[in-house]
Amino acid sequence: MDSKKLAIIVIIVVAIVAVAAAVVLMNQGGKSIPSEVNEYGLVYGNADGDTKLDQTDIDIIDAVIKDQSLLSKYPLADTNYDGKVTEADKEMLQKMIKKEKMKVHVIQFDAADKITVVESNFPLTKIVASGGTNMRVLISVLDLHTVMVGNATNKYISPVLDKDLYDLRASGKILILNTSPTDDDRTKLAAADFDAIITEISGLEGYGADSYRSLYKEKGATFMQFSVDNTKECLQAIATMGILVGQESNAKAFIDFSQKVEDTIKTKEGNKFGTATIMNVVMSNSVSGTTSDYYKATIAAGGNNLADFAQNTKKFPDGSDNTWLLDPKYNPQYLIHISSTVFGDSPTTSTVNAIKKNFSETAAYKADQYYLINGTIPLPVRLAYMAEIMYEDCFDKGWCVSLLQDYMDQFTSSKVDVKDYKILWTTEELKNF
């Protein structure tokens, strides 16, 4: 991260705190934290920005107390978020390490790329969570089912992949909320006892409406939104929530798991990384553009994505131009379609028929290089599947399946052999569906 940008942010923070105004820091060119700080647990007091509160953070605070100029390098050292670092910050952090109840400050990035600082209860012990596939990964990795009060999620929740949350919902021990909140959901929340509600920015955002935020404020509950659709922001969300709920070791384990996947992809692909051309299909007839997290995932997997349109998705056919994807400049070696269904279930007939209708004339489909992946698998594993499709000769056979097994064994309570669950469909299988 650009240290100059961080310095500007810190100056703004100090000025705004001084006048007791609401703190919303505009990002000036990308989500960033100083180079000296890890970009993970963005809780004030976690001075080094890693996944845990520990002696290292105390040592950094001591250093900043002696030399306030270091605050621009370690802004999270300002534990009490008052614009300066003193013994009070050190004392507060020591209480946080002991998990004493208090209010803390947390950095969040919103959908408009703004940096926002929110006040949160700490530690969090009674949570309502709303979100889809990637939020369920966060819940599973951090064992949030143990502190879950209520949940809203989509129809793709799995008794295998999301076992703990699925079982908790089935037991009737928590509030089951609709994905799009209703008056009944509001009544349930008004009567419930919870100290935080977390949602994901993309999808299932109804619980972030102003009227609901007013309800949370009246109840003294923290409201936080996380972007969990790409690797970096998903890991930030997991590390940040890991600190807030006391699951730092779980967060660290998942970050290590994710980093190992990306490192393996780059190492194994070597000079081939970024050479295989690819485009990404989502929903029934949409192709991901450069602003999409799906596009970013193809790049992380080592693909050269040919999309050149600065939008999340572009339909094919789109009515105005029914042949644009057949243009030679959009002629990738691989079309990889990410479509969600319950873990292990086959795609619906309507999904497969739509693929045949919309994409059967593409060069990739004709060359049997169109693949359908169940989008409910965790993002790091999704990257592995895409990498293995594009560069099969670079990886040991079944590498991505073994990663999925590792995820299941390490981060869920399911005792299953993932080989029994189908995740990927080839063009040939789709043609014969």
What is the highest CATH level, the class of the largest domain? Alpha Beta
Tell me the span between the first and last alpha carbons. 48 Å
- Helical fraction equals 25-40%
How would you spell out the order of helices and strands?
HEHHEEEHEHEHEHEHHEEHEEEHHEHHEH
By CATH, the architecture of the largest domain is named: 3-Layer(aba) Sandwich
The major sheet is characterized as: 7 strands, mixed
User: What's the total number of strands?
Assistant: 15
Structural class: alpha/beta
Strand content: 15-25%
Number of domains: 3
Number of helices: 15
CATH H-level superfamily of the largest domain: Nitrogenase molybdenum iron protein domain
Q: Kindly identify the CATH topology of the largest domain.
A: Rossmann fold
Q: So what's the overall shape?
A: globular
Rg measurement, Å? 23 Å
* Mean pLDDT metric: 89
**Uncertain regions spanning at least 5 consecutive residues:** 1-31
